[in-house]
Amino acid sequence: MNPVKVGLLGLGTVGGGTATVLKDNADEIARRAGRGIVLDMAAALDLERAVELGLGDVRLTTDAWEVVKDPDIEIVVELIGGYSPARELVLQAIDNGKHVVTANKALIALHGNEIFQRAQERGVMVAFEAAVAGGIPIIKAVREGLAANKIQWVAGIINGTANYILTEMRDKGRPFDEVLAEAQALGYAEADPTFDIEGVDAAHKLTILASIAFGIPLQFDKVNTEGITGITTEDVAYAGELGYRIKHLGVARRTDGGIEMRVHPTLIPERRLIANVDGVMNAVLVQGDAVGPTLYYGAGAGALPTASAVVADIVDVTRTLTSDPENRVPHLAFQPDALADTRILPMAETQTGFYLRMRAKDQPGVLAEITRILGDRQISIEAFVQKEPAAGEAEVDIILLTQVVREGAMNEAIAAIERLDVVSGQVTRIRVETLN
Ligand code: HSE
Questions:
Q1: Which residue range is the domain that position 367 belongs to?
Q2: pTM of the model
Q3: The domain spanning residue 357 has which CATH number?
Q4: Whole-angstrom Cα distance, residue 267 to residue 249?
Q5: Labelling 110: which of 25, 183, 379, 384 has CA 20 to 30 A away?
Q6: pLDDT tens digits for range 334-362
C-alpha cells in the first residue's frame, strides 16, 4: 500500500519535533500503522529551519495554503498555533477533504465546535491529542479508556511553564521573571507567555477536558481563569508550613447544580501524588464513578514529548482512513447529537476551601473581629498561623485555612475583613482542594 502523505504547517518547536520523530521512528511507526507515513510537504516562514532539520526530500514552501490545497496530502498537521490563520487553514483543509491533526489548544477551545461540525459533515477526522498536557495521552484515556464511567471530576496541572515557575519559587526562591525567561528559552512557554502565567493556556486545555469528560460543547468563555502572577514566595512558604503545596490547577467538576470549570492557584495537601508533580511536568487526575481515581503523568510541553502525541494522532488517523466516519471515536467523546446543555456554574456558586493571608495590627481583639466575620457566615476555620511581628513592626501576617465554603460567602467575608481598620491592604486568597 502507498504510504500516507503528511503536510506540516509550521516548523517551530513542535513542528521540528514532529518531523524528527516521523523520520527517526519511521519503521516502527509503519509497523504500528500498517502503512508507511511520510512527511511529504512542509510550510514554514523560515526555510533555513528545514535545512537545520535535514528535511532533504520534503517539498518546502513558505505558503501554508499550498499544503492545504495540495492534492497529494491526506493529513494536514497544523502546528502554527494561535487562532488565526490556523482556523481558516484547518477549515479549508477539511473542505478539501483532508484529515487534520493539531496541537493547537487555543484553536480547539475557541473554534472546536465549528471545526468538528464541519469535519463531521465532510467525513474527515480532526485529532488533537497534543493540545492537552503535551505528551500525556489524556484525550485517549478519557475519551476511550474511561468510556464506561460517569466522570465526576478532573483536576490537572496542565501548564508546564506555570508549574516550573512555582516549583523554582518553592525550591530555590528564584525570581519569577528569571524562571519565566528560562522556560521560554527551553521552548515550554507560549509565543505570548502571558497565556501561561495568566492561566489562559490552562483554561484552553480545561475547556477541552471538561467537554470530553462530561459530554458538553466547548465553552472557553465560561472558564473562571486566574493565573499565578499574584503568588508570592511568602504564600509558597506558609502553604508548606501548613502541609500544602501551591499548584496551578485546572478543575472541572460535576455538581448537582451544574458544572464547575475553573483554573487557579490551589493549595493541595503535600501527601497527594499530584502535589509532588514538579518542574515542567504535567499531571491529570480523573475521578470516574466505576474506576475511582486515575492519575496520568508526563511531560506537558517540549519538542519531542508533544511530537509523541502529534505522531500518535497521525497513526490513529492512518489506521482509521478506511473506517466509516459514523463509527469513528467522536471528537468530543460523546456522539455529537448527545452533547448536553448542562449549566456551567458561575464562580460565586463553586465550593472550595480557602487559604487567606492578611496583614493585621498586633493588638488585642483583632483575631476576634476576623473570626466573627467568618463565623457569622458559617465559615469554619481549619488551621491558623500567626507569626510574631518583625522587630519594629506593628503588623503581623495572619494565615487562615477554612473548610469548604461557597465562593460567594467567602467574597462577602473577605470584603468585610478588608473594611476593618485593623487590617491593612487586601486579603490574599488561594483556593484549597483536598482532591479526595
Ligand atoms: N505553554 C505550554 C505549557 C506548552 O507551558 O504547558 C504546552 O501546551
A1: 348-432
A2: 0.96
A3: 3.30.70.260
A4: 9
A5: 183
A6: 999 999 999 999 999 999 999 999 999 99
